[in-house]
Design brief:
- The protein is α+β, with helices and mostly antiparallel strands and 689 residues long.
- A hairpin with a 4-residue loop joins β2 and β3.
- The longest helix is centred in the last third of the chain and has 32 residues.
- It is globular.
- The N terminus is likely disordered.
- The protein binds a DNA duplex (7 and 7 nucleotides) through α20.
- Its main location: nucleus.
- GO terms for molecular function: telomeric DNA binding; transcription cis-regulatory region binding.
- InterPro entries: Homeodomain-like_sf (IPR009057), Myb_dom (IPR017930), SANT/Myb (IPR001005), TPR1-6-like_ubiquitin (IPR057625), TRP_plant (IPR031105), Ubiquitin-like_dom (IPR000626), Ubiquitin-like_domsf (IPR029071).
DNA sequence: TTTAGGG
DNA sequence: CCCTAAA
């Protein structure tokens, strides 16, 4: 499989160009705004609204499918323009590729006040960057201005020009002030400095901190930056969804997944409460080849399939699951993946099965956010603040700065031409976008699927919570399940997939089943032992209400059927050594121990020692069904480790030093005891001999 | 099933 | 958290 080197591009996502469509009539300015009372507004309405805005984009994109998108690749030294024949008039935007990363982006601030954006040229635009500009923008500037509404013609022209200038010259980009009425701003970032890779996208005061500290060839951002700003309000009046993908130092896997912890600003914007796990993903990856997922909820799965298909049609170009270790940012990948497949860590699916219930399923570890979510979402009674807010203005003001787009992986021969690369990428993008899109709503890190739920019910009505609101672009269900014919399979198989074709269907909907069930039942009744109290705290973070689970379980059990079938099928094709049931494959949701739990654990271990995990479990976690003795043992292990490392190296919810000290003490003590026991035994046996 | 450890 | 060898 190494006939020739391949460049592995990871498209975790794209910045999808988007220009808010000004509402045709005098209704507004491309604002997502619902006239009706927000409290009455259903999530579905919201979706519709957003989707409507996106439609434009989707159309243009699909129209362009098959054609080569022109692109300007700014390599470190040169600018290449080629094949531009697809005027996407409405799409006037600019796409960039940063460090071999591709993201089509366009930031449009559609707020009334914006005139001071791009002036941070110095550190942003300091070097040649890899920029990909689609025809929509660079080559067809002339027509670009036609986008959307005639009214903007002029303004946009200006902007486009500017853009062009920028793209080619990579010069300073001061600002681009757009027309009076819509006051759009098209902001471009050419971030080039290898070390300072960030897309300087600042809409108004917002700097976009995309940290692109990744190696080349990595297109990392999968967020579509766009603003559907909605109102006359000055920017400051409503939360800015900043795409703080702060994947920097933290172990995404552990705690944050970028979105999970993207700066306090908007934890949930990129939802995906880290549920993903690369391992699981790995499994799934292989599954994708075999199973044709019908899951319409997990867009990326399908996308994967589809994309691969696309590539397989091309001689040398094809996509494949890149090997994990080849990628420096697997974590991120996971993370993004999450939003689609796992996204909610089991929280997404079925969350909303009960319309009236709190959809607040919290993938633990999201604790902070979750508490907020609890407050805002679902059944909980809104705080006074929010209430008053609503009374003043019952409309929900949203500013959508970006959409999440399913990630793509592309593998392409090293000697492939840039042009083919472009085409490849284009195809991939087109495959997704062209197929029609669906909008997903993510709130507080969780997918909101119940379309009938009102924003109020979902907790989306409070200003303060809006920063936790995100939208995702998902392949439409119809397109999502591409006809993966038999040939498709055969074509796919040889590619690799050394892993046993697995046991589960990619559809996380299904996969989540077992896990969720566990989750739901995790906290049956609390009789109120002292320790139970601790754990009860966890109950809070336990995602969803029991009754919701009932309904959901029923649905899931149905969903499981096909899985088994597919599973069998897969096995038939590639016999596995150890066929496993689907349920066993699902990795459990990660549920970080709370301090309370740690306390309980420490206390129990102090008493019982380190070799009696079952007892510890029964003693301290009897009511926490999701904590197995193995979990406790593992937690102890990590606690010991944590206690030994410097505080700076610790991650996650900080454990009080006092507890850590106790951990060390207890650990030392019991280790000693253990050693003594062994000595005893040894001496005894020796004596016997 | 539990433990103990590596992954 | 997962996976497993051992007990």
């Amino acid at each position: 499989m190494e006939l020739h080197k391949r460049l592995d591009y990871g498209f975790i996502g794209y910045q999808v160009p988007y220009i808010p469509r000004a509402t045709r009539s005098a209704r507004g300015r491309g604002n997502i705004r619902k006239k009706s009372d927000s409290n009455e507004m259903c999530a579905f309405d919201l979706l519709t609204t957003v989707a409507g805005k996106l439609l434009l984009e989707g159309e243009s994109t699909s129209n362009s499918s098959g054609k080569d998108q022109s692109a300007v690749v700014k390599d470190t030294t040169e600018t290449v323009k080629e094949d531009a024949d697809t005027p996407l008039k409405e799409n006037h935007c600019n796409e960039r590729c940063q460090e071999q990363g591709f993201f089509i982006s366009q930031i449009v601030s559609e707020a009334p006040v914006v005139n001071h954006c791009l002036s941070k040229s110095t550190d942003m635009l300091s070097g040649p960057a890899s920029v990909i500009t689609s025809s929509n923008c660079s080559d067809k500037l002339g027509s670009a201005e036609q986008f959307i509404n005639g009214e903007r013609k002029t303004e946009n022209r200006n902007c486009s020009t500017k853009v062009e200038h920028e793209l080619s010259g990579c010069g300073d980009f001061s600002s681009c002030t757009l027309g009076a009425e819509s006051k759009k701003q098209l902001k471009i970032n050419l971030s080039n400095d290898a070390t300072n890779k960030r897309a300087a996208i600042c809409s108004s005061e917002f700097h976009d901190p995309w940290d692109r500290k990744r190696s080349m060839l990595v297109a990392s951002d999968n967020t579509v930056k766009l603003s559907l700003s909605t109102d006359l309000d000055p920017f400051g009046s409503f939360p800015v969804i900043q795409n703080d993908v702060q994947l920097a130092n933290k172990d995404d896997d552990e705690k944050s997944c970028g979105c999970t912890q993207p700066s306090t600003r908007n934890k949930a914007f990129m939802p995906a409460p880290r549920v993903g796990d690369w391992r699981m993903r790995k499994l799934q990856a292989s599954k994708y080849w075999e199973v044709n997922p019908q899951s319409d909820d997990e867009g990326h799965v399908n996308v994967d399939n589809e994309t691969r298909h696309v590539y397989q049609k091309r001689e040398n170009v094809y996509t494949s699951e890149r090997s994990q270790r080849d990628f420096p940012f697997k974590k991120r990948k996971l993370y993004y993946c999450n939003s689609f497949s796992n996204s909610d860590g089991g929280s997404s699916d079925g969350i909303c099965s009960s319309p009236t219930k709190d959809l607040n399923r919290d993938a633990s570890g999201y604790s902070l956010a979750s508490s907020g979510a609890r407050a805002a979402a679902g059944t909980s009674i809104p705080k006074g603040a929010s209430a008053s807010f609503r009374s003043n203005d019952s409309h929900v003001k949203l500013k959508i700065k970006s959409f999440r787009v399913p990630e793509l992986f592309v593998e392409i021969p090293e000697n492939a031409t840039v042009g083919s690369l472009k085409r490849t990428v284009m195809e991939a993008v087109t495959a997704i976008l062209g197929g029609g899109l669906r909008i997903g709503v993510v709130f507080q890190g969780k997918k909101v699927r119940d379309d009938s739920k009102t924003l109020f019910q979902a907790g989306i009505s409070h200003d303060d919570k809006l920063d936790a609101l995100g939208f995702t672009l998902e392949p439409s269900p119809s397109r999502a399940s591409p006809p993966l014919g038999p040939e498709g399979h055969s074509r796919v198989l040889p590619c690799e997939t050394p892993q046993p074709l697995t046991r589960c269907s990619p559809g996380s909907t299904i996969i989540h089943n077992g896990m969720q069930q566990e989750t739901y039942n995790a906290f049956p009744d609390y009789s109120g032992t002292n320790l139970s109290n601790f754990i009860e705290s966890d109950h809070d973070s336990a995602p969803s209400p029991p009754d919701a689970s009932l309904e959901k379980n029923a649905a899931d059990s149905r969903a499981l059927v096909p899985v088994a079938a597919m599973d069998a099928e897969a096995l038939a094709v590639v016999p596995m050594l150890k066929p496993k049931r689907c349920e066993t494959v699902q990795r459990r949701i990660r549920r970080p121990f709370s301090v309370f739990e740690v306390e309980a654990l420490v206390q129990a271990v102090e008493k019982l020692g380190t070799g009696r995990w079952r007892d510890v479990k029964m003693r301290a976690f009897d009511n926490a069904k999701h904590r197995t003795y193995v979990d406790l043992k593992d937690k102890w292990k990590t606690l010991v480790h944590t206690a030994r490392i410097s505080p700076q190296q610790r991650r996650g919810e900080p454990v009080p030093q006092e507890l850590l000290d106790r951990v060390l003490i207890a650990h030392a003590y019991w280790s000693q005891q253990q050693a003594r026991q062994q000595m005893k035994h040894q001496s005894e046996t020796r004596l016997l001999l």
